[in-house]
């Protein structure tokens, strides 16, 4: 089973769907108060968090100073790894005895084997993501039809300069009533006067919080009504990323 960014953009769950983008967590190096740490950024640009002390969640990054609940480190044990955070919690899987429990939680003790994870490196792709790429996203077999009210939200969007910079005062905005990635592109294209050529030369990135890193959006938007910030990045813009899978 793999730790995955839940499709509501908030929770973290276990899944056997290895090939989905939701199971990939990008690694950002950060210095914690007492040790080198990392931030783990999921498919919707949000960061793995243990801030509530009970369950693992996805959280925006609103400040330059990294909260301790978003700082993670790993320790080797029995051929696997403990994944601990700056608040003293450890990432924990569930479902050994109650199979329907698929949420990822956090625990203060580190003795259970449910706290042991393996880490798998994801090979970097050689080309920039494009909206025309096939999507591999998490699905739930028994989830009902998504209603319009469950995905209606305000979208802010902007196209960055060739060097990756943009002006915070220059956002466009639109209300959307779908989480479909292609419909999102069409909404932004109409507002900004973009054409078919831009479709293949632009990567749609999501920025979760004012201090969040740009994260390529390769699947539909998460369910929910919260505002989402989108940054359009030209394919000539430099950048690099390292991603891991937790399983």
TrEMBL record:
It comes from Eleusine coracana subsp. coracana. Residues 152-232 form the DUF569 domain. The lineage of its organism: Eukaryota, Viridiplantae, Streptophyta, Embryophyta, Tracheophyta. PANTHER family: ACTIN CROSS-LINKING PROTEIN (DUF569), OS05G0115500 PROTEIN. The gene is ga03779. This is DUF569 domain-containing protein.
């Amino acid at each position: 089973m793999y730790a995955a960014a839940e499709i509501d953009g908030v929770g973290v769950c276990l899944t056997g769907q290895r090939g989905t983008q939701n199971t990939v967590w990008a690694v950002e190096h950060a210095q914690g108060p007492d040790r080198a740490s990392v931030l783990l950024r999921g498919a919707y640009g949000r960061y793995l968090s243990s801030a509530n002390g009970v369950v693992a969640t996805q959280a925006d990054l609103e400040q330059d100073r990294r909260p301790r609940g978003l700082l993670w480190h790993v320790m080797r044990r029995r051929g696997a790894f403990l994944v601990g955070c700056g608040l003293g919690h450890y990432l924990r899987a569930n479902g050994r005895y109650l199979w329907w429990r698929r949420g990822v939680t956090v625990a203060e003790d580190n003795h259970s084997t449910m706290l042991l994870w393996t880490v798998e490196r994801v090979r970097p792709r050689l080309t920039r993501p494009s909206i025309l790429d096939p999507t591999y996203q998490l699905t739930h077999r028994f989830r009902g039809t998504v209603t319009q009210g469950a995905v209606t939200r305000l979208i802010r969007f902007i196209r960055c300069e060739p060097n990756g910079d943009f002006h915070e005062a220059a956002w466009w905005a639109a209300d959307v009533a779908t989480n479909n990635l292609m419909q999102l592109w069409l909404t932004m294209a109409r507002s900004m006067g973009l054409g078919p050529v831009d479709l293949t030369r632009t990567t749609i990135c999501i920025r979760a919080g004012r201090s969040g890193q740009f994260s390529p959006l390769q699947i539909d938007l998460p369910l929910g009504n919260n505002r989402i910030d989108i940054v359009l990045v030209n394919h000539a813009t430099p950048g690099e990323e390292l991603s891991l899978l937790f399983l």
